[in-house]
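Journal club prep — side note

Before the paper discussion, L.F. wants everyone to see what a predicted structure for a comparable chain looks like in token form. Sequence:
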Amino acid sequence: MNKGERKPLIAIAAGVWLVALVMALIYFSGPGIGVVGQGDGIVSLGVTHFSGMEISGDETDELVVNQTSSGDIVEFRDGGSVVARIADGGASTWTGVINADAGIDFNGFADAVILDADGDTTISSDVEDTIEFEINSANDFKMTANLFTAYSGSTVTTNAINETTAGSGVAIEEVTFNDAAGADSAATNEHTEVAFTTPIDTTGINTHNALTIDLAIGASTGGTNHVRGLEIDGVSGDPQVIESAIVVGAGWDYAFDTTLPIVSTAQTYYDDFMGNTIRDEWALDSGSTASDPALDQQQFGVIAFTTNADSAYADDFSAITLGLHWSADQGSLVFETRLRHVTNITAQAVCFGLTDVQADEQWAAIDGSDVVTIAANDGVAFCFDDTATSKQWFALGVDGTTPSTGNGAVGAGSAPVAGTFQIFRIEVDAAGEDARFYIDGALVATLTANVVNVGVLLTPFLNIDNLGDPVDVIDMDYIYISAARS
């Protein structure tokens, strides 16, 4: 070949068919092309060199055609380094970019495209119309016509899944949401959110559902089966956490709108103290010169507890109990109420919660050294006593006359303020060894032993005792008690 002339090399030697095929597609140009050797330039088990050429725009110093006992090899070298290597008896390599004017046909060869150094991350198409992605020798993902599949154990991570056709939605056969929140983020974490902005309608006949659960029920046999549109599974309780299965925020006209009954298997009692007459099941009591609790016609409705001025407890107390219907061993025992001191917080002692007797009793007293004396045998309660040094609410419990571990003032910031409602909540675990006390949704105290005898029946209660002038009045807005129906 002359210098600068571009010709195809049709064949190199008989029996070297792969090399001949490759060489038939290669054109040479450039100075210094030469053939070392005679005849076809191939010496058996030898090497033929072509030097100083340009192949597809990549300058090379040398083309080496080598016939070996293990196979035929074609190498392109640049400065002594192998740029590309084509072999019929081993791996072929290329150090740069491969540009193909026509397709590259892998002909269904398994693991045809090897991507990493150790050869265990590949792309295959050995099954017709299927692409397999193998990572670390494991099949992770598969693509077929109009379908992308992640194998078991593989995860698809994305910030968004969008519909391809507007208005068609995204069909998901089954999905599990599994996420963990960052600790102490001081924010609300929306792990699964339905973000939906309704359009501005003008006809007045439209319904827009952010979430619709539409079930088709089959004709089942073989016993009692259950189909649930939505199930919120149980959780392991945390004393530092208030667990709410469903929270309905402000702004809704209705929390629930249903034509069917709402069934609860929990033992629940709630009284909002509205109307003209208090319910018959309440046991009202008062001292000889005080007043029985009575409904007061005001916003929200309340039951008012009014004492007499300072005298003995038997003369000036006001109290209420319900019935001995609850015990800690039922599980999930909860007492909650909302109340306020109407005019003052001085010269009085008030306790409320759950106790083991229906008769009136001064449930607890707290002296000037914050020493607590509990008269009840079993129960848990919030108490405030103006005699105490700490002018705070106390969280108290007693188990068979044994005071609970942790009894004491709940700390600054929760003291009663005349005229201001507070929400109080007590939760008792099924073993009767732990109780959590909340004020306005914040955990303020935890009792950790001897909270209450689990087998003793309890009733909700409130009693207030006047310790000096003036008359004391407490408004209770509502009362709520519940426990599992074990």
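L.F.'s comment for the group: The chain has two helices and 28 strands. Keep this in mind when we get to the figures.
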